[in-house]
UniProtKB/TrEMBL annotation:
Domain Clp ATPase C-terminal: 77-170
Full protein name: ClpB protein
Keyword ATP-binding in record: yes
Organism name: Salmonella enterica subsp. enterica serovar Inverness str. R8-3668
Keywords annotated in UniProt: ATP-binding, Nucleotide-binding
């Protein structure tokens, strides 16, 4: 593929790769990157980081392969970036509740900070943030929603936050304006 600019699929059809960008990712060197980026004041630039990674990459990949690719190190996500990712996934949940159930779902900035604090990002990337939302927020939200359906309560709004004990809390408002905290 690198030499000829194309390859054949399983049926023998030529697939052109001349104007294609392939993104290949690996965790090789992730510990080194984490160590080098721990202190923002001492963090090297992209060129320095790439140079530091090359010996580690050569242990795992042939030189001929490395000569044909452009190495772009991915930096660890900082707290601000993790907050943006958490908000993106929470916003999807907000949209889904609104579109599918007609319920206004809101969340506090304290909830975002709580999620970020509970999810250090060493080898897992954003997966840990997504997993936290799926394991700690979605089940509780589903429980409240199902309970309201069985009680035939018309919920207008659900607010998700964090209490003083760092516990995730839900506050629901019914169509009648009655608030329920849990």
């Amino acid at each position: 593929m690198f030499d000829k600019g194309g390859m054949e699929d399983g049926e023998g059809t030529h697939v052109d790769f001349k104007n294609t960008t392939l993104l290949l990712t690996t965790n090789v060197g992730s510990d080194l990157i984490s160590q080098m980026c721990e202190d923002p004041a001492l963090m090297p630039d992209a060129t320095g980081l790439k140079e530091a990674l090359m010996p580690e990459l050569r242990k795992h990949f042939p030189a001929a392969f490395l000569g044909r690719v452009t190495v772009i190190p991915y930096l660890p996500l900082d707290e601000t970036s993790r907050g943006v990712i958490a908000r993106l996934h929470l916003d999807r949940l907000v949209a889904r509740m609104g579109e599918q159930h007609g319920v206004t779902l809101t969340y506090s900035e304290e909830l975002v900070a709580h999620i970020v604090a509970c999810c250090p990002m060493h080898e897992t990337g954003a997966r840990l943030l997504i997993g936290y939302i799926e394991q700690h927020i979605l089940p509780q939200l589903s429980r409240y929603w199902l309970q309201a359906m069985t009680e035939k309560a018309a919920i207008r709004q659900i607010d998700i936050g964090v209490n003083g004990d760092e516990q995730i809390v839900f506050e629901t408002t019914s169509q009648e304006g009655i608030c329920q905290k849990s």
